[in-house]
């Protein structure tokens, strides 16, 4: 009679910063055989019952599944380009969770694929303490076969994994897109605080009202993306002229206050151009034509 042999899953982690250390702990707790490499050896000292290697090369050699999470992709490229033998990448699934740009993702994919390795590019959208939760969002893209094969190992990292297809650059591009939205909103949020301070508003009221209107605006934003997807800009929700007037009003009110005016002027200018370029009878989402220089 043959007894089923329980195979211990192996994972190697390259980079033990805040995020790498957190992921190392998660895999140790999940019972994996964990191998670690960090440029500064001292950071490996807090870990017991793991394999510590002296080189990234050895860390890659020890596991089929390798996570790289370092400061930026210049560091990732440094590590991969300085391997003693890049042939070690053959057959390995290399998951790069370092935040970076889409072009960098393609460059790294090229190095890994040239050695017949499987590349998956990722972008973690939460802080280390929020890893491993049901709501933890991680954007991933690249080799789908490797993603499916190692799905249970990915699942340790979080419950809201978004696999965005075979184009390795997609996760970095999506990260940039969501961050663009986030910082635009964030700067708007703080300008709202500035206005509130100047007019003596209760900032707790502001905070509460923002919280209450956000779900409705999220629905509106999703509707507007759908308008662009369909390419039908007939007015159904928000006629562009209303926003031309609103952003003019916002810019005017900041003119009277002694604050940096770049942001309110920028949003006013985009809307104003849309009006000047004849989009006045279209849905607000038509500003994509101005931004993309299609008009
Ligand atoms: N922390 C977060 O909240 C968070 C959230 C989402 C995404 N991320 C992303 O996760 C990645 C890592 O973040 P982190 O917070 O862990 O950063 P961190 O604490 O600053 O750690 C950076 C890591 O990169 C290593 N490193 C830097 N340059 C290197 C090089 N040239 N060669 C080899 N290793 C190098 C460092 O090694 P040494 O120890 O030798 O310096 C260290 O292990 C970043 O891309 C970040 O954007 C972080």
TrEMBL record:
One of its GO terms (molecular function) is nucleosome binding. Residues 10-163 form the 6-phosphogluconate dehydrogenase NADP-binding domain. Residues 170-292 form the NADPH-dependent reductive aminase-like C-terminal domain. This is NAD(P)-dependent oxidoreductase. GO terms for cellular component: chromatin. Keywords: Oxidoreductase. The keyword Oxidoreductase applies. GO terms for biological process: transcription elongation-coupled chromatin remodeling.
